[in-house]
Amino acid sequence: MTEAATRRPTPGAPCWVSLMVHGLATTQEFYRALFGWEFRPGPQQLGPYVRAMLDGKEIAGIGQLPPDRHLPIAWTPYLATDDADVTAESIRSHGGTVGVGPLDAADAGRMAIGSDPAGAVFGIWQASAHLGTALAGTHGTPVWNELLTRETSTVGKFYEAVFGYEVEAEAAGAPADFGHLTLRLEGRPVASVRGVGQALPRDRGAHWMTYFEVEDTDAWARLVTELGGHVLEPPHDTAAGRVATVSDPEGAVFTIVRSATTPPSG
Fold first, then answer.
1. Lateral strand order in the sheet of 38-41
2. What is the pLDDT of residues 243-259, one digit of tens each?
3. 265 pLDDT exceeds 50?
4. Among 81, 111, 139, 188, which is least packed by CB within 10 angstroms?
5. Which residues have CB under 8 Å from 154's CB, separation 6+?
6. How deeply is 132 buried, as exposed, middle or buried, from its count of CB atoms within 10 A (0-12, 13-18, 19+)?
7. Structure pTM?
8. pLDDT score recorded for residue 187
9. pLDDT at residue number 263
């Protein structure tokens, strides 16, 4: 377990994840039972919003959509910036769009919601009082973010230009549709891009996937089902650890993982 947000995050680094839903109270109950989160009120500029907490540390945000807004229910990563307005303009000039903001979130910071040229939605965060996720390496904390998209070459260039990532291609020689990129800052891996070609879900399109650390992937996949969610991809072993893709009762998809480097609890 480590404290993750003790200083201003490096520009480009994923620093927060947030979810917008219709049933705020029922969603809180789901994640409280799944991850042990408690909740405190957060900035209300876009409507009712709470911050999920573990051991008194901020982990993630959940907000409530207006009843007439029928947007995809999805976890959204926020990428750090020193200037949200400059980054928003860069998003536009490199073929992306900005759908919300930039706007101030009380004294917490300045934010915007954008999308890349393939349509994958992400946030940008200029920290002030709120630095971002404040705990890492324990059950219920975000551990990784991966972009699932049709092809990697165009979007890789977009994120490199906007956020200054060092883009490392893996699986050299693979078709562009199925490439895999690691996004690095100062040599440190911070996120990844996976091209899945025609396997990209038609109902979701290109999207970011958040991975949350759990103590036991198999046990928590069963718990997701018991709590009214769904297991979309059963637990299986990967180089990063044992993972399962699941969704909450409103349909927000995320991945749970017991990291290969995480010691057993207890």
1. 38-41, 49-54, 57-64, 14-21, 75-80, 121-127, 109-115, 97-105
2. 999 999 999 999 999 97
3. no
4. 188
5. 117, 118
6. buried
7. 0.92
8. 94
9. 44
pLDDT in tens, 51-67: 999 999 999 999 999 88
Tokens 């993972």 label which residue? Answer: 243
pLDDT band, very low/low/confident/very high, at 203 (cuts 50, 70, 90)? confident
β partners of residue 224: none
Exposed / middle / buried, residue 41 (Cβ in 10 Å: 0-12, 13-18, 19+):
exposed
Q: Which amino acid is at 194?
A: R
Structure tokens at 106: 């009380």
Task: Please say if the pLDDT value at position 2 is more than 90.
Answer: no
Which contiguous run of DSSP H or E holds residue 217? helix 217-226
Name residue 198's amino acid.
Q
Phi, psi of 107, deg, nearest 5: -95, 5
**Cα gap 156→147, rounded to integer Å:** 10
Helix, strand, coil content of the chain in percent (nearest 5): 20, 45, 40
Answer with the residue of higher pLDDT: 44 or 159: 159
Peptide bond just before 102 cis, omega within 30 deg: yes
Cα 60 to chain center, whole Å? Answer: 9
Structure confidence at residue 180 (pLDDT): 92
| DSSP structure class, residue 157 | H
Beta bridge partners of 111: 103, 125
* C-alpha closest to that of 120 among 84, 89, 152: 152
Distance CA 106, CA 44 (A): 8
